[in-house]
UniProtKB/TrEMBL annotation, chain B:
It is found in: Cell membrane. Residues 22-209 form the ABC transmembrane type-1 domain. GO terms for biological process: amino acid transport. Belongs to the binding-protein-dependent transport system permease family. This is Amino acid ABC transporter permease.
Length: 248, 220
């Protein structure tokens, strides 16, 4: 493999985050290499969302280092708006802009933030929507879409900023079971194209098939890291075993 | 029977003067509500800022407006502005009304902004949009939509409240009615007449607000 594929896309050293007295992330260390797909599992409240949110600076860490593409990012020395463009995020509840059409949702940030021309943004936006299977929905409002369609629009919207990493926070947990597959298929396609992804999910099938690494979090700590099959089938830690037997 | 014909005579006979008053009421309401909207937006943003002193300034403003009668506010601004700053009566009246409505509009807009799901802000920020851009492009358009019914209601209150400027001598709708009534000692028909003008204005405005609401609802 070439050196590019071994580049560290995200490196986290001794990351700590508290909300008031609540110590939510405790000395987190994590490395995500280019084109890696990492799934993050753990009980509700273990800090998975907070970790993702720290990685794209929606939350500001208390201590430790977050290194994105080799550069240590600090809020005092970096324009976080610029950094966030490199780190796309997909939310559990989609968070589409309800006052904009599907296409407007996708082209908003490229035009307003990246200063793309409208024509350029529309062209790329349509291409991305086509890609996620929504080529016939450009001009409808999000309220008319199913959950699965909404989440695919949200993915296209994040991709429109051409991020180097995509973070997914339980992208399918708000969906009716029959709509989960279409979103996972879109994510799988993205992974196959080499997108670096960090995914919080309890879809074990997806994790086994697509992920390079699985990370188990418990009460703000990373307890165990391994290949998905290793971690799910032969967890070394008692707490991982207990968690897995509760979700499987 | 003759009371009714008498009223109709007064109603039709006074159309010219009342149209002059109506024009002043409309000009005054539109100008004062536009200013009030800008004041309201400004103080709403102060209130949701994370800066204590700015929040405090907004609280103080809203407290003063809520804690004093509108007529007192109009008199203070009128005597303050026209005596000290030599501002024309129209603008003093408009300033008084705007100062008053601004506080209520600030609360309406603040409430609407805070009612927008925080995921909207996060989605905007996660795409690299700045705080200001997210506010302008994502939050405010949704907040305004949500605020249309309350803003419409506040505009209606503002138009009716504008009648108080007659007490600083303006010949708005109510001023005309008062003058005509006291000149002829025939008060009731003129106050009935002015009531009809206000009812018509409010009827039309209510219709416009409802129409706007329906139009905006299509995207939700
Ligand atoms: N903004 C916040 N303010 C205070 N506490 C928070 C906030 N966000 C998350 N928490 C707390 O941090 C802990 C971890 O939450 P979260 O990262 O959402 O966990 P997970 O995504 O694994 O369910 C929880 O106890 C949660 O209540
Ligand atoms: Mg979570």
């Amino acid at each position: 493999m070439d050196t590019l594929n071994n580049q560290e896309m995200i490196k986290v050293n001794k990351l700590n985050k508290s909300f008031g007295n609540l110590h939510v992330l405790k000395n987190i260390n994590l490395t995500v290499k280019e084109s890696d797909v990492v799934v993050l599992v753990g009980a509700s409240g273990s800090g998975k969302s907070t970790l993702l949110r720290c990685l794209n600076f929606l939350e500001i860490k208390n201590s430790g280092q977050i290194i994105i593409e080799g550069e240590q990012i600090e809020k005092d020395t970096h324009d976080l708006n610029k950094i966030r463009q490199k780190v796309g995020m997909v939310f559990q509840h989609f968070n589409l802009f309800p006052h904009m059409t599907v296409l407007q949702n996708v082209i908003e940030a490229p035009i307003q933030v990246k200063k793309q021309t409208k024509q350029e943004a529309i062209e790329e936006g349509k291409y991305l929507l086509e890609k996620v299977g929504l080529g016939d929905k450009y001009d409808v409002y999000p309220s008319t879409l199913s959950g699965g369609q909404k989440q695919r629009v949200a993915i296209a919207r994040a991709l429109a900023m051409k991020p180097d990493v995509m973070l997914f926070d339980e992208p399918t947990s708000a969906l009716d079971p029959e709509l989960v597959g279409e979103v996972l298929a879109t994510m799988k396609e993205l992974a196959e194209e080499g997108m670096t992804m960090v995914v919080v999910t309890h879809e074990m099938g997806f994790a086994r098939e697509v992920a390079d690494w699985a990370v188990y979090m418990h009460e703000g700590k990373i307890i165990e890291v391994g290949s998905p099959n290793e971690l799910f089938d032969n967890p070394k830690e008692k707490r991982t075993q207990a968690f897995l037997s509760s979700v499987l | 029977m003759s009371a009714i014909t008498h009223f109709f005579e007064i109603f039709t006979g006074s159309i010219d003067v009342f149209l002059d008053g109506l024009w002043i009421t409309i000009k005054l309401s539109v100008v004062s509500l536009l200013i009030a909207f800008i004041i309201g937006l400004f103080f709403a943003i102060l209130k949701i800022s994370n800066i204590k002193i700015l929040q405090w300034i907004a609280d103080a403003y809203i407290w003063i407006v809520r804690g004093t009668p509108l007529i007192v506010q109009i008199f203070i601004l009128f005597y303050g502005l026209t005596d000290i700053l030599l501002i024309p009566m129209f603008w003093a009246g408009a300033a008084g009304l705007a100062f008053h409505s601004g506080a209520y509009i600030a609360e309406i807009i603040r409430g609407a902004i805070q009612s927008i799901d925080k995921g909207q802000r996060e989605a905007g920020r996660s795409l690299g949009m700045s705080r200001g851009l997210t506010m302008r492009r994502i939050i405010l358009p949704q907040a305004f939509r949500r605020a249309v019914p309350s803003l419409g209601n506040q505009f209606i209150i503002g138009i009716k409240d504008s009648s108080l400027v007659s007490f600083i001598g303006m010949q708005d709708l109510f001023g005309v009615a008062s003058t005509m009534g006291s000149n002829s000692f025939d008060y009731l028909p003129y106050y009935l007449t002015v009531a009809i003008y206000y009812l018509l204005i409010v009827l039309i405005l209510t219709y416009v607000v409802n129409l706007t609401e329906k139009k905006l609802a299509r995207s939700d």
